[in-house]
Design goal:
alpha/beta; FAD/NAD(P)-binding domain; 2 domains; seven-stranded mixed sheet; five-stranded parallel sheet; 19 strands; about 30% helix
């Protein structure tokens, strides 16, 4: 007999939203997370980057204060203090979330889980079984074939949010949301920044008018970018990196940030072994987030829907309500509000 009504693998936006709603509806819940409760959004994504953007905004405000009749001077960035501010924002939200989960009597399990059957997740030598299993293992920062992340000169957003110094120059590979976000942060912090984007515009998934408006703003700020040209290779030396493009151009900088999107975290977690239908690492689901196996569900960045925290929340809540028999309406993905700034 199953111990839980649902066992959730992954404690990010989709996983904890599902756990909290299910507990609210009177279901017995186990929530398994290998790192920290809150997932990418809280610890490596939305929240820390917005904190860095805010610090950058204040730096720019100090530089331009005289334009507003305010006497102030910008001296430098104190990255120890910037990171302390950012970590403080994360810590406050993390503690609040931990308190919420504890108050709902959710069984919270710290450890790396693996799906071993349609009803069971193993964590080390322990097994957690449920009438339903929700897969919510999120995503990771992708790279390109042959482009190895060393975490020092060639980095992803995972390392970029923890940097203890301001690089003199940075090349950002990828002009999507994440690439543009860090380009803006580093320019505000005082770095020379150049974005390389293979598509014809920055933030190419937005309306063209929005992309052009961002490009104009970036030009005005002195953020350089190369559009419609593909990355070819990178050479590393003691002094930094040299990036070669397919059109023959090359650019040198201290750092290369690889921001070419995020992929689903699904490898080695037992999904395919149990028979879960997948495509290019994504778990395939219907309009109620059900997989092809009865009682196994999937939400968040693991499924091929919009990679947004509030989409993960909505999917987690949908699954909890469906399991509880409330028959919620499927999510209208065309109606999901989103903002890039």
């Amino acid at each position: 007999m199953a111990d839980f009504d649902l066992v959730i693998l992954g404690g990010g936006s989709g996983g904890y939203a599902c756990a909290l709603r299910a507990a609210q509806l009177g279901l017995k819940v186990a929530l398994i997370e290998k790192e920290k409760l809150g997932g990418t959004c809280l610890h490596r994504g939305c929240i820390p980057t917005k904190a860095l953007l805010h610090a950058g905004e204040i730096a720019d405000g100090a530089r331009h204060s005289a334009e507003f009749g305010v006497k102030a001077e910008f001296h430098s960035m104190d990255m120890v203090a910037v990171n302390a501010y950012k970590d403080g924002v994360i810590s406050k939200l993390h503690k609040g979330l931990q308190g919420l989960v504890k108050s709902r009597n959710i069984t919270y399990v710290e450890g790396e889980g693996k799906l071993v059957s349609a009803t069971t997740v193993a964590v080390g030598s322990e097994s957690y079984s449920g009438k339903n299993v929700v897969l919510a293992t999120g995503s990771y920062a992708k790279s390109l074939p042959g482009l190895d992340i060393d975490g020092k000169q060639i980095i992803t957003s995972d390392q970029a949010i923890h940097m203890g110094y301001v690089p003199k120059s940075v090349i950002v590979l990828g002009g999507g949301v994440i690439g543009c976000e860090f380009a803006s942060v580093w320019k505000s912090f005082g770095s020379e920044v150049r974005i390389i984007e293979a598509l014809p515009h920055l933030v190419a998934l937005e309306d063209e008018s929005s992309s052009k408006a961002l490009e104009r703003a970036f030009r005005k700020r002195g953020i350089n970018f190369e559009l419609g040209v593909k990355f070819k290779s990178v050479n590393q030396s003691a002094s930094g990196v040299e990036v070669l493009l397919e059109d023959g151009k090359s650019f040198a900088a201290d750092l290369l940030l690889v921001a070419v999107g995020r992929g689903p975290t699904s490898a080695g977690l037992g999904y395919e072994d149990v028979g879960v239908k997948m495509d290019r690492g994504y778990v395939l689901v219907d309009n109620k987030c059900r997989t092809n196996i009865k009682g196994v569900w999937a939400v968040g960045d693991l499924i091929p829907t919009l990679q947004l925290a509030h989409v993960g929340f909505a999917e987690g809540i949908l699954v909890a309500e469906e399991i509880a028999g409330l028959n919620p309406r499927p999510i209208d993905y065309d109606g999901v509000p989103r903002v890039t700034y």
